[in-house]
From TrEMBL:
Its main location: membrane. The keyword Membrane applies. This is CKLF like MARVEL transmembrane domain containing 3. Keywords: Membrane, Transmembrane, Transmembrane helix. Residues 9-128 form the MARVEL domain. It comes from the Eukaryota. Signal peptide: none annotated.
Length: 157
């Protein structure tokens, strides 16, 4: 029970995206192993492991326990690089190799590209919202500290 994610997280948008990323990465990995384009199998394997790690990290609320890592930015960078890499290797697999497993890997790679792109778009919007909120709080704190420093520098005569 402790290893299984909560039902609440599985029903969330982030949980469903991470689950879809994990499944698509694993299927793409298996297709690349069976194909003549086996040189591309490392990218889906790494993305599968990263998506699986983040799936369990978010479901077990590790992101709330480890505050030193900025989780949304890490997730955003992972999704952007995954979408770019999947797009590139999918084009290569479909155009360069003629066997069915390579074509299947390319198709699943294109689907994974779309899922990763949706994830990085949503994560980017959350990131921008957070930075806007953080930026206004930092500006308010800076104004308060400037006001305090000006008060301390008033010459007394």
């Amino acid at each position: 029970r402790t290893l299984l994610p909560s039902r609440e997280f599985l029903c969330s948008r982030k949980g469903q995206l991470l689950l879809a990323e994990s499944v698509l990465s694993f299927i793409t990995f298996i297709c690349y192993i069976a194909s003549s384009a086996a040189a591309f199998m490392m990218a889906p394997l790494i993305e599968f492991l990263l998506a699986l790690f983040l799936f369990f990290a978010y479901s077990s609320k590790l992101n709330e326990k480890f505050k030193g890592i900025y989780w949304p930015l890490t997730d955003f960078l992972r999704c952007v690089t995954a979408a770019i890499i999947y797009f590139a290797i999918s084009i290569a697999a479909v155009s360069k190799y003629s066997d069915g497993a390579s074509k299947a890997a390319g198709v699943f790679g294109f689907i994974a590209t779309i899922v990763f792109a949706v994830d990085f778009y949503i994560t980017f919007n959350d990131l921008v919202t957070f930075l806007k909120q953080g930026g206004s709080e930092n500006a308010t704190e800076a104004q308060k500290s400037e006001g305090n420093s000006v008060d301390h520098n008033i010459p007394t005569g």
